Amino acid sequence: MRPTNTSKQDPFIQLMTALPGGIERQEAAGQSELVHSESLPSDCNDKAALEAAGVKFGAPYPDDPLFCPVTLPEGWKKVGADHAMYSYLLDTKGRRRAEIFYKAAFYDRRADMRVRGRYSYSAYEEGSDGDHARCVAKDGNTVIQEFGEAASYDERRALAEKAETWLTEHFPDWKSASAYWD
């Protein structure tokens, strides 16, 4: 099974999606098909990192090059996010290895996948009030170090530099999507 190429659907079906809620239903159906399929987007920022972890990619489908067949390692799975255009590729420990975008709407159908490293930082986490953002280092989605709060772009940039320095000191290969998983 693979996602339906909605851009090649019967024009009557495309017309039906113009009814109230039709596009949203098409997006939700696309997410479900993707999650339950044996396919991933062909557009991927770091296939090599996933291949090193055991994901096997086939050539893009000739009639739908947006996707390609894949074989996932034992215990890996795809799960839908709260928003119908996003899904995640999870490893055996439930860690997000990649974020998948798939817009199934027939008029603007597209997909891509962004592989993520284990460690990262964010300078835009919710702060103690509405005027500040926290800067944190993360292991997946878990905060492992905080660097303070900032209100301005310049303050956030300074905290981000601290986060990058800290990550480089503690995890020298933190920018690699292949490093530190096991």
Indicate the proportion of strand residues.
25-35%
Number of self-contained structural domains? 2
Total strand count, please?
Answer: 10
Major β-sheet strand ordering: 4-5-6-7
* Cα-atom radius of gyration: 19 Å
Average predicted confidence as pLDDT? 91
* Share of residues in helices: 10-25%
Q: Pick out the low-confidence regions.
A: none
Q: What's the overall geometry?
A: globular
Q: Briefly note the structural class of the backbone.
A: alpha+beta
Distance between the termini: 31 Å
N to C succession of SSEs: HHEHEEEEEEEEEH
Query: So how many helices?
Result: 4
Biggest sheet descriptor: 4 strands, antiparallel
Can you put this structure into words, describing what you see?
By secondary structure, the protein is of the alpha+beta class. It has helices at about 10-15, 20-35, 45-50, 155-170, and strands at about 40, 55, 65-70, 75-80, 85-90, 95-105, 110-115, 120-125, 135-140, 140-150. It folds into two domains: about 5-115, no CATH class; about 120-170. Helix content is about 25%, strand content about 30%. The strands form three sheets. The chain has a four-stranded antiparallel β-sheet. A hairpin with a 5-residue loop joins strand 4 and strand 5. It is globular and about 55 Å long.
